[in-house]
Design a protein that fits this description.
Blueprint lengths: L4 H8 L13 H11 L11 E6 L2 H21 L2 H10 L7 H4 L2 E8 L5 H18 L3 E2 L7 H7 L6 E10 L13 H4 L1 E2 L1 E5 L2
Antiparallel strand pairs: 1-2, 2-4, 3-4, 5-6
Helix pairs in contact: 1-6, 2-6, 3-7
Bound molecules: flavin mononucleotide.
The site of flavin mononucleotide has 10 residues, from loops.
């Protein structure tokens, strides 16, 4: 199993939250979105839509709208999530929305069957494809996507599932640990963990 291309990419991929200004080749982004478009979807509805943003003014609008929503979220967040966020130094500031050379906004068509599930499968394909291209991202899920939908005049019926800032890391960040597959897998019954 260790020679699996997918396993190698999956192990290597990690979230990047600080980007440098090195430009990204549009051809690579298109290849990555082609990979995302190959995902399975409910009734093959292919409910993903991708909006690529390179314009600095539009990036600034997205950042501002996002940070407004995040300020509210960070006022109310509590418990284990708050501790986790604090530990990682994550707060309402989202500079990566302007620092990354390019953003891909990923939408789902709410009228399609299983649209959210399908679009998240597409995002999974995109993440591995980015890794293969040597590109990096953060799967950013805005706390108040409505604000962004309005500011960008997105047609009714489309949900903003994620914003993927794409670029190259400013610093080396370490990958968060994963549980071993044997810890999370069972054979035939919940009583029996996979050895
Ligand atoms: C559905 C989903 C939503 C996420 N939303 C955010 C987010 O809003 N902000 C953020 O900083 N990271 C977000 N992340 C990134 C996760 O925090 C990250 O994937 C996780 O901590 C594991 O780290 P790794 O990606 O480096 O392996 C999200 C990831 C997923 C899959």
């Amino acid at each position: 199993m260790s020679d699996s291309i997918i396993l190698r990419l999956a192990r290597a991929r990690k979230t990047v939250r600080k980007f440098d200004s090195t430009p990204v080749e549009m051809a690579d982004v298109i290849t990555v979105l082609e990979a995302g478009s190959q995902a399975p979807s409910g009734a093959n509805s292919q409910p993903w839509r991708f909006l690529i943003i390179t314009d600095p003014n539009t990036k600034a609008i997205i950042r501002e709208a996002s940070e407004e929503g995040e300020k509210e979220f960070y006022r109310t967040v509590g418990g284990g999530l708050k501790n986790w966020l604090n530990g990682k130094g994550i707060d309402w500031h989202k500079p990566f929305l302007e620092e990354a050379p390019l953003l891909v906004l990923v939408f789902s068509d709410g009228a399609a069957p299983y649209s959210t599930e399908s679009v998240w499968l597409s995002i999974g394909y995109i993440l591995l494809s980015l890794e293969e291209k040597g590109l990096h991202t953060i799967t950013y899920t805005p706390s108040n996507p409505q604000e962004i939908l309005e500011k960008l005049e997105i047609p009714q019926g489309f949900r903003l599932e994620a914003v993927l800032p794409i670029g190259f890391p400013k610093f080396r960040e370490s990958k968060e640990e994963r549980r071993d597959v044997s810890e999370v897998s069972y054979l035939n019954s919940w009583e029996r963990k996979l050895e």
